[in-house]
Amino acid sequence: MIQIEKVKDYSALSKKAAMFIAAEIVQRKLPVLGLATGSTPIGTYKVLRELYQEGRLDFSSVRSVNLDEYRGLSPEDSHSYRYFMNEELFNHVNIKISNTHVPDGTLKEAKEACESYEELIQSLGGIHLQILGLGHDGHIGFNEPSNHFPAKTHCVKLTEETINANQRFFAKKEDVPTEAYTMGIGTIMHAEKILLLVSGKDKASILQKVLEGPVTPDVPASILQFHPNVILIADEEALSLC
Ligand code: GLP
């Protein structure tokens, strides 16, 4: 079931999402957060940093697992998702870096990289709250449209659309990696709760498909209709076609 929380704009979305995550951290003894990259959660991470700086939130017991990482990029590469997480959140709060996990893009053996990440998530006892953004083609993590829902962490070839969309973070298109490691749809669906964040007019048509269309691997995020506990925080523009 997807519970819809409609907010006015991106700033309201960021505040609401951060308060939701903060409540999860406070209520759990050893919270396991599934974290996402992309531009959508940047405002949320900023509010979380502020809550920490004001002494209102303690990250010392938080463990985190990120959804995905570009294959071939090292943690020091400023385009890697590990670098993004350090910059946007981890370096500014009292989370223990050893408790934060992002798939290792430098591991050459894809099978091994994916299996070990899946085992790691199991060893943490699963994900309590998974944060998700939404790709323009309906992808979550890097689970691109396909003919099936991948169960576990795997290596994907990025679609032309995703490469184009993510090009804005790189100097030129040729620099965008063509492959990534990502949690599977099954990994994501096993999370106890999911917080889906969607903002802007350009996401309105895909969000309509996710919420109102058939559940199909052609729109990977549509599977969220079958999850028992999804909260969608979306702004007016993103919900303008629903
Ligand atoms: C990337 C990430 C996704 C993210 C998506 C949307 O491809 N792998 O996890 O949700 O982009 O990004 P944005 O929030 O910038 O629109």
From TrEMBL:
<feature type="active site" description="For ring-opening step">
    <location>
        <position position="137"/>
    </location>
</feature>
<dbReference type="Pfam" id="PF01182">
    <property type="entry name" value="Glucosamine_iso"/>
</dbReference>
<keyword id="KW-0119">Carbohydrate metabolism</keyword>
<dbReference type="InterPro" id="IPR037171">
    <property type="entry name" value="NagB/RpiA_transferase-like"/>
</dbReference>
<protein>
    <recommendedName>
        <fullName>Glucosamine-6-phosphate deaminase</fullName>
        <ecNumber>3.5.99.6</ecNumber>
    </recommendedName>
</protein>
<dbReference type="GO" id="GO:0005737">
    <property type="term" value="C:cytoplasm"/>
</dbReference>
<dbReference type="GO" id="GO:0006043">
    <property type="term" value="P:glucosamine catabolic process"/>
</dbReference>
<dbReference type="GO" id="GO:0006046">
    <property type="term" value="P:N-acetylglucosamine catabolic process"/>
</dbReference>
<comment type="similarity">
    <text>Belongs to the glucosamine/galactosamine-6-phosphate isomerase family. NagB subfamily.</text>
</comment>
<feature type="domain" description="Glucosamine/galactosamine-6-phosphate isomerase">
    <location>
        <begin position="12"/>
        <end position="225"/>
    </location>
</feature>
<dbReference type="GO" id="GO:0004342">
    <property type="term" value="F:glucosamine-6-phosphate deaminase activity"/>
</dbReference>
<dbReference type="GO" id="GO:0042802">
    <property type="term" value="F:identical protein binding"/>
</dbReference>
<keyword id="KW-0378">Hydrolase</keyword>
<dbReference type="InterPro" id="IPR006148">
    <property type="entry name" value="Glc/Gal-6P_isomerase"/>
</dbReference>
<feature type="active site" description="Proton acceptor; for enolization step">
    <location>
        <position position="68"/>
    </location>
</feature>
<dbReference type="InterPro" id="IPR018321">
    <property type="entry name" value="Glucosamine6P_isomerase_CS"/>
</dbReference>
<feature type="active site" description="Proton acceptor; for ring-opening step">
    <location>
        <position position="139"/>
    </location>
</feature>
<comment type="pathway">
    <text>Amino-sugar metabolism; N-acetylneuraminate degradation; D-fructose 6-phosphate from N-acetylneuraminate: step 5/5.</text>
</comment>
<dbReference type="GO" id="GO:0019262">
    <property type="term" value="P:N-acetylneuraminate catabolic process"/>
</dbReference>
<dbReference type="GO" id="GO:0016853">
    <property type="term" value="F:isomerase activity"/>
</dbReference>
<dbReference type="InterPro" id="IPR004547">
    <property type="entry name" value="Glucosamine6P_isomerase"/>
</dbReference>
<dbReference type="GO" id="GO:0005975">
    <property type="term" value="P:carbohydrate metabolic process"/>
</dbReference>
<feature type="active site" description="For ring-opening step">
    <location>
        <position position="144"/>
    </location>
</feature>
<comment type="function">
    <text>Catalyzes the reversible isomerization-deamination of glucosamine 6-phosphate (GlcN6P) to form fructose 6-phosphate (Fru6P) and ammonium ion.</text>
</comment>
